[in-house]
Amino acid sequence: IGDPDGSNKWLTREDMTEIVNYASDRDIEIIPSFGFPNHMGAIIDTFSEFKFVTNRCCNFTTNEGRNFMLAILERYVDFFASLGNSFHFNIRGDELGGILNDARTRETFNAFINQCFRVIVHHKMIPLIYNDNINPDLANDAYISDGFEVLHWWSWNRPEQLISKGYRLVN
Fold it and tell me: How far apart, in whole angstroms, are the C-alpha atoms of residue 103 and residue 164?
């Protein structure tokens, strides 16, 4: 989909299968990562009807946008789960900045992220997410599943805050 850097390069299913098999032969796990709902620039370039706020973010506030992303996620998770080498799947869920300023948008985001969680778990994979949109201090904040393994990279919420709320940190 798209060609944002003009390189005309991307990996096919066959390419990814070869990479995963190569890694598997060496006991290396490939951890697929798909940035939801942000970091979707190349997809949004092709499917602009799903654009939300920025050129890189897919609209998680509409049923159409959520269903679009869940269909993509289902396809990728199913593919990597079928290869038998990937036990984790990272949906990122990061760098939304000021987009989550109001309670309704945050609640919708969290519900969508939990839908992603269920897709990944359904395929018997362990879901990963970055920490920057998990807010353990908001009493009324909609809940992002503590079944996610959290990759802590952004300093605004401290690791001990996340751990005290039941999240498992990878790093």
Answer: 23
CA 6 to centroid of chain Cα atoms: 25
Give pLDDT tens digits along the chain (171 positions).
455 556 667 788 999 999 999 999 999 999 998 887 777 777 777 777 777 776 677 778 888 988 988 998 999 999 999 998 889 999 887 777 666 677 777 788 888 889 999 999 999 999 998 887 777 665 545 578 888 898 888 777 778 888 888 888 888
In single-letter form, the type of residue at position 88 comes to H
Sequence-separated (6 or more) residues with CB below 8 Å from residue 99: 52, 53, 54, 57, 105, 109
Between helix 13-25 and helix 63-83 the angle, nearest 10°, is 40
Contact 127, 91 (CB under 8 A): yes
Residues in the chain: 171
Q: Rg of the chain's alpha carbons, rounded to an integer?
A: 16
